[in-house]
Amino acid sequence: MFTPRQIPPEERLNRKQRVVVVLMNVLLLIELTISMYLGQQDPANLTVVFLKTFLPMCVVTMVASRIVVRRLQANVPARVE
């Protein structure tokens, strides 16, 4: 029914980029855990504490990871179609 899109070799992530993506995922899980822990300290304000802690950490992690992945991209000349 659906056929997977074939990604050309020059667009695939290299080994260093894959490490960054794995570390980003681990960091996001740690941030989620910390935010939930801090939120459960005050059950009446769990949502506010969670959002105030998780969202800024998440945004910083995602932006930093995106920048690092782009910097680690192989310098392959753009293909002309």
Description:
The chain has one domain. It has 81 residues and is mainly α. It is 64% helix and 0% strand. The chain is elongated and about 55 Å long. The longest helix is centred in the middle third of the chain and has 26 residues.
Number of strands: 0
Element order, helices and strands? Answer: HH
Measured between the Cα atoms of the first and last residue, the distance is: 28 Å
Beta-strand share of residues = under 5%
Largest sheet: none
> Which residue ranges are poorly predicted, with pLDDT under 50 across at least 5 consecutive positions?
none
Radius of gyration: 18 Å
Pairing-aware structural class of the strands and helices? mainly alpha
Helical proportion, percent range:
55-70%
Number of helices: 2
Outline: elongated
Oligomer: single chain
Mean pLDDT: 89
Q: Can you tell me the number of structural domains?
A: 1
Compact summary:
The protein has 2 helices and no strands. The protein has helices spanning 15-40, 46-71.
Please specify the SSE layout and strand pairing.
Elements: H1 15-40, H2 46-71
Helix pairs in contact: 1-2
Features:
single chain; 81 residues; mainly alpha; 0% strand
